[in-house]
């Protein structure tokens, strides 16, 4: 494998030792071994990578130099937000009051409000993510059976033995 003369063998080894990013370190190590004269198959064994990955890494180094081995994912800003800061402010203001149809705010209700008021059609995932980023948490009352007798439940709690003295799988006897 031919390796371009961007860095000397010693400089490549220094990059391997000093690299803080594990991806970058792995790539420099592959190029270092290629510069030493090892084959792609031998380098793949050493680095626990595929021969194709080794060949592509060396090709990238030859084409772009040491900068080509950097992990460029760190500079990726990601997808731009679905709502502008002004729109997010309006959503936060709307959430301070009750929803237009009364009751409690839900994801689908907020999604419909955003579509109607802001003219943006969003799925539920960005709505829930936005609520989470704004500090809101899901609050749902515990389910209660419609025919439950609260007085009978309290009486049972007072007369039943403590869990530690019960028999059966939960009691441990």
Automatic annotation (TrEMBL):
SUPFAM superfamilies: Homeodomain-like (SSF46689). Residues 146-157 have a biased composition (Basic and acidic residues). Residues 101-160 form the Winged helix-turn helix domain. Pfam families: HTH_29, HTH_33. Residues 163-173 have a biased composition (Basic residues). Residues 64-86, 144-173 are annotated as: Disordered. It comes from the Bacteria. This is Winged helix-turn helix domain-containing protein. It comes from Thermus thermophilus. The lineage of its organism: Bacteria, Thermotogati, Deinococcota, Deinococci, Thermales.
């Amino acid at each position: 494998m031919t390796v371009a003369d961007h860095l000397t063998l010693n400089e490549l080894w220094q990059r391997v030792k000093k690299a803080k990013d594990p991806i970058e370190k792995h790539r420099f190590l592959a190029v270092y071994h290629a510069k030493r004269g090892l084959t792609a198959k031998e380098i793949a064994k050493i680095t626990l990578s595929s021969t194709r990955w080794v060949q592509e890494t060396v090709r990238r180094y030859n084409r772009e130099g040491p900068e080509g081995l950097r992990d460029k994912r760190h500079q990726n800003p990601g997808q731009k937000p679905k709502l502008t800061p002004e729109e997010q402010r309006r959503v936060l203001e709307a959430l301070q009051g009750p929803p237009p149809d009364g009751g409690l705010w839900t994801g689908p209700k907020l999604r419909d409000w955003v579509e109607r008021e802001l003219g943006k059609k969003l799925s539920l995932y960005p709505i829930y993510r936005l609520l989470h980023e704004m500090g809101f948490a899901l609050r749902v009352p515990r389910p209660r059976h419609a025919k439950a007798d609260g007085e009978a439940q309290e009486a049972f709690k007072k007369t039943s033995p403590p869990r530690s003295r019960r028999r059966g799988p939960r009691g441990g006897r």
